[in-house]
């Protein structure tokens, strides 16, 4: 009972473990150029509700640009992005119901943890009382309640990234996008956060697209992996399928077979 490709998904709908919405996030024929450079093209993918998918590929292959396109932080030239049946391709970022976490946290240095986390709610004009309740809830989820009144410079890198995660979660996004969120952290913190991130993601049933260039991280964390190379998705599958049955020598190389 394994999902090797998007084409295998319909067969699973009859099984007890079939996802409720196998196409919760749809990427249809996405393409993007910067001037003469074709950054990505022919990006087609379905992500199920609650699934944790990792976009894995070497530096420069287009991962960040693709993630930013889904978030609405950069435009695309071709294709459609659909979340839960609603096309979001042309919507501004704050109307997409998408939360994003960046490698270098991107916190407001002059704001306390609570205000960093509450930022999106303030933008949405959520009343003060509800804002306080929801911020408290997500800070508990990321285990940072006792640091609520601190400023970013008083926190470790791992704590800053948990603030960034809380800030993304507080608006209850339909999709969580994370661009190398663990890459700036030291190995011990990174291992701990992998687990915590996965626990939170499963608890919330949150549909997640996670970007990394770290093959081990992808193998350990993902329900499925999209292997990206030169602006294309080479292969999609679970960790075992990609590792044991790479379909191209680029895929095999990137899964570590030539080390
Ligand atoms: P990755 O995240 O996989 O390292 P990126 O999406 O950052 O890759 O970059 C993919 C390609 O697009 C690279 O060749 C990069 O130089 C180019 N690129 C990214 N952003 C821009 C930009 N704003 N203008 C021009 N080229 C860009
Ligand atoms: Mg990148």
Automatic annotation (TrEMBL):
- The name of this protein is ATP-binding cassette domain-containing protein
Could you tell me the superkingdom of the organism this chain comes from? Bacteria
Keyword tags: ATP-binding, Nucleotide-binding, Transport
Q: Please verify whether the record's keywords include Endoplasmic reticulum.
A: no
Q: Name one GO molecular function term.
A: ATP binding
Q: Name one GO cellular component term.
A: ATP-binding cassette (ABC) transporter complex
Record organism? Halomonas icarae
According to the UniProt entry, the coiled-coil residues are none
The ABC transporter domain extends over: 25-255
Biological process terms in GO annotation: quaternary ammonium group transport
